[in-house]
Design goal:
The complex is a heterotrimer of chains A (about 160), B (about 290) and C (about 775).
Chain A: E1 4-8, E2 11-15, H1 23-30, E3 49-52, E4 55-58, E5 71-73, H2 86-93, H3 103-116, H4 122-128, H5 140-155
Chain B: E1 7-9, H1 14-24, E2 28-31, H2 37-42, E3 50-53, E4 63-66, E5 69-73, H3 78-82, H4 85-90, H5 92-97, H6 104-109, H7 112-118, H8 124-131, E6 135-140, E7 143-148, H9 149-152, E8 153-155, E9 158-159, E10 166-173, E11 179-186, E12 196-205, E13 208-217, E14 224-225, H10 227-233, H11 240-250, H12 264-289
Parallel strand pairs in B: 1-3, 2-3
Antiparallel strand pairs in B: 4-5, 5-10, 6-7, 6-10, 8-9, 11-12, 12-13, 13-14
Helix pairs in contact in B: 10-11, 11-12
Chain C: H1 19-22, E1 39-45, E2 51-57, H2 59-62, E3 67-72, H3 73-79, H4 86-90, E4 107-108, E5 114-120, H5 123-132, E6 134-139, H6 146-150, E7 165-174, H7 177-183, E8 186-194, E9 206-212, E10 217-222, H8 227-238, E11 245-248, H9 264-276, E12 280-283, H10 286-292, E13 299-307, E14 313-323, H11 334-341, E15 350-358, H12 374-390, H13 394-401, H14 423-433, H15 436-448, E16 452-467, E17 480-486, E18 492-496, H16 505-517, E19 524-527, H17 544-571, E20 578-581, E21 584-587, E22 590-596, H18 597-605, E23 618-623, E24 628-641, E25 648-658, H19 665-684, E26 715-719, H20 737-753, H21 768-777
Parallel strand pairs in C: 1-12, 10-11, 14-15, 18-19, 25-26
Antiparallel strand pairs in C: 1-5, 2-4, 2-6, 3-5, 7-15, 8-13, 9-10, 9-12, 13-14, 16-24, 17-18, 17-23, 20-21, 21-22, 24-25
The chains are: A alpha+beta (about 160), B alpha+beta (about 290), C alpha+beta (about 775).
Chain lengths: ~160, ~290, ~775
Amino acid sequence: MVDITLRVNGATRTGSPEARKTLADFLRDDLNLTGTHIGCEHGVCGACTVIVDGRAVRSCLMLAVQAAGSEVTTIEGLAPDGGLGTLQQAMWDSHSFQCGFCTPGFVMQAAAFLGDHPDADEQQIREALSGNICRCTGYQSIIDGVLLAAERNREQ
Amino acid sequence: MKLPPVEYEAPTTVAEAIDLLAEHLDEASVLAGGQSLIPLLALRLARPMVLIDINGIDELSGVSAVGGRVTIGAMTRDYVAEVSEAVANTVPLLAAALPLIGHEAIRSRGTIGGSLAHADPAAELPAVARALDAEFVVRGPSGERVIPAAQWFEGYLTTSRRPDELLLEVRLPAARRGTGISFQEVARRHGDFAIVGLAVSLVVSGEVISDARLAFAGMSHVPVRAAAAEDLLVGERPSAELFDEAARRATDDLDPPADLHGSSDYRKMVAAAMVRRGLRAAADNARERQ
Amino acid sequence: MTAIAAERYTGASIKRAEDPRILTGAGRYVDDIKLPGMLHAAFARSPLAHARVLSVDVSPARALPGVVAVLTGADLEAMTVPGPDALMALMGWAGPTPEFTLLATDKVRFVGDPVAIVVAESRYIAEDGCELVEVEYDDLPPVVSAAFALDPSSPPLFANLGDNIARPHSRSEFGDVWSTFANADRIVDFHIDVHRHQNVPMEGRGCVASYDADRGVMTVYAATQSVHVSRIAVAMRLGIEPDKVRVVAGDIGGSFGLKIGASREELAAAAASRLVGRPVKWVEDRTENLSASGQAREESFDVRAAVSNDGDLLGLDVKMVIDTGSYPGMGTMVPAIMEAMLPGPYRLAALGFESTAAITNKASYVAYRGPWASETFVRERVLDLIAKDLGLDPVEIRLRNVAPRTDPPAVMITGRPLVGVTSKESLERVAQLVDFPAFRRRQAEARAQGRYLGIGVATFIEAAPGPRSPEGPSGPMGTESMRLRLEEDGIVALFTGQMPHGQSHQTTLAQIAADEFGVPFEQVRVVVGDSDVVPFGLTGGSRSATMTGGVALHGARQLKVKVLDFAAHLMEANAQDLLITDGNVWVRGDPASAIAVSEVARRAASGQFGADVDAKLEVEATFDGGEGGWSGGTHCAIVEVDVETGIVKVERYVAAEDCGALINPAVVEGQIRGGIAQGIGAVLLERSAYGEDGSFQSATFMDYLMPTTCDVPRIEIEHLETVPLDADVNFRGVGEGGMIVAPPTVVNAIEDALSPFGVRIYEQHLPPARILELIAAADPGQ
């Protein structure tokens, strides 16, 4: 067991995970933040994507102990006060999702990408999200949601 | 797919890390970016007794361009190298290959040194290192060694790093005047490992190719140079016919692996196409860079 | 269109009620459930494809700190009731069933066959425990192909069956097969293979089982397409009274046919929870999902086609072999559906069909979105192959053969009337949307430059739910039930056995009810996922748009009648003079009379009315599908094939589809696009791969490749004018169509791209290496 302290969604959190415990499992089991989903546990599907120190990462490919001292944002912390941010609202308006299991990973990855590339075009968005797998939608509605969010961000 | 029980160490200096490596030798795995190692642990294919997490060793990160080369610390994240102006300006072949590594989230954590120490022959960075004759600086209890790429990659997922040594940095030569590069890969999907990948670096002096380096990913148990093609190209003027002949020769001595994604013959056919396309792109790049 | 009071919601892409929780991580999937004292299960699984189990020693696993219980196959047999697969039983399967146990006892029959269940304080420890289970195996020769399974010398997987045939060979004939073939201008023979691939929902199978010994009640938190089918499966196998089993489901991360009933592992976890007296969670990881949850579509077809020189497809004679894997279930039932659907919307005069189901050492064949889809693949490939032989255009040959819409409607040779089918219109629409002559010019120019573009079309119908049958209800499993209730707070609650796992029922059904009843969308709540509370139902078979949309429509009307009868008392008016709009009840012509529906509900619940007034504002509605109907359409794909690398890019994809009246266009289009993505995945990327020794080779996402944003293009969808069949309910299902018709659409396009090389394609899986093999083997003179 390793004692760790980190900031998650703006709050200081502590825990004593085994070294082998992934950040994904730590978030879900120890911190009860079950919005981050586990889809493959080998870093391919992107469902577990969170933001660590400003970068989108696959939380199944990080040990919890490696996040000590870091700033972590999960889907629960993306929008203020449990509401919907611009990206989430745009995805709602665009019917982006169906079963919702891939959703937190897509939202976090898209949020990180748009933050760095606010004027990305469709092809760039497709490439940026090509590491997130969705089985339900065929992706078009997700891309539309991201494009709509980018447009609304520009208008603000 | 939960990781197996394992001990964990997090040294904060290189010296500490080397002491740990010397103590545990083959029972230890070095944890850098984790993007390759953690899946192996989750699948319980790797069973080290101890993980030596080097993410806390600050001195292992950094990119510096001095004289005729670029030195990249082993723990430099892929994404840092991707946005590094020093890399873009002095090692354009590396800059071309980096965006092809997996996806952004992988590059957030993955490291230059980690990928090269893991030595997956289907990965992009080993092919780049092999093409450019990179130098690998390791340090162990008995001191430092500098290992050229040709000796670094020993076998499938195997390097000549001894179990008590730590990879500190990689040195890549700065691209000379007249350099043209390309990195081509055929992958099943965007971001996947290459079924066949090709790193090309040419130097075109006047109208003639004065230097030619072609290194394949996915064609052997290590990244491998297409020596026969290189020999053919040096001293010649770029032309479609020359590139066709180079493509024919490039795979003569190779016996590429067969797997779910392609037979050996398939890889040879694709490799030939990669050589044609890669040389064309590198020649174009040389013209653009002038 | 239906006679709806205020056409505000139905037909509009109303934003989903599900999304606020989905988008903020507040969804509740089975792995999110935590109960006090909950334990975690993992399974020790066979590394061999076929072997006798000589001994199982669980003592080292039991000794591991944190492990609470380890049960073997024998242990579980002693505490459960033997029986067949629940879905098969439900669907009335009467054929031979192999005897199989929840966990392997005397034999293992595929790589991944579970041998022991380890229950521990955490999944980490449970997996550690699995590694300590010692099993002694005696290797047996593996049966890894249907061909070998049908060979009498193959070692039988099941002693009680004696051979590896899951269902006896059968042959049916429709029309005059002999004459049709005897008199045809030409007979052509093909052998067509469809490869093994699988559902792969992003959330795997799983459950949390919790047994209350005091009350004798087993509660299972499940991921399932029907809480009641799961309940019955658990009850049957665990020997518990069905009304003492409660199945609860929250959000479900996709299924596509996988999560029906209860799997062997879920049943084992439930039995374990009863034994240890604590809740047990089992959620499969991706390796388990790929290797053990089940696979689909591995079928092969010997096809004879009787054809006229002008391109009439007169008859088909098909011999099919289906590889049902090791614990046969759904696979044994699929051939019958294929036989019924093979003629499609065409004027086929004769059909001969025979099938054999083979048992092999692979994971079991399960239902996967449009389980009978290969009938469309075979038929649409055959049409293209015939067209090529005769020099006909693919749209032309289909227009020639499609049954015209007549009154009375044409009847498929296999019995079902093609009532309301708009296949001809969909073909014509695609021809309008895609400028074929312009494409052919572009294709020729590209070929001159060494680039290979191709175009393909395919046409299909799906029974969604299917035409009204003379015997009664249209849909599978007969009528659909729903309880509708005006709650005390004014919410119109719909209690349905539907179990959405991406279908957006909490939105679409609310749209219909809101329109019919007269309240705002937000004032309707769709209640799902609790077997104590909802009537029987199952989400599957593309039934819900018609069956559940219909029962919601009629049920809302019935509830409205009841509410107005009650409101008439309150308002001292005639019920016939009352309206409900925007959540208010009012007297026609007197807006000032309006009372909120919520107020009416509150008064009804207040108990102040005598027995002469019916204040129970609730109805139990049923719907038999009305006139039912077909969905269908024509899809078209344009691809480019890189003939040096074999990489295929889908450049453009157009779908002209008819699913009747659309409840929510965005939901419909999402379903279609998702199905098409799976079809593209099947052709270009996905294969459940077994080695010759039965080893499983695609157990991670590095080898089982899923389509991504860069593999699926923008899909243009055109909705056709519906042919209304029913006075009120013309919504038809659309869930499976995309996945049924996309594979032949894409394969037809690839063959067209490669036609200069003389390539002919008789298979569905075309990874890059296969493309180059086909080119190398082809004869350009063809």
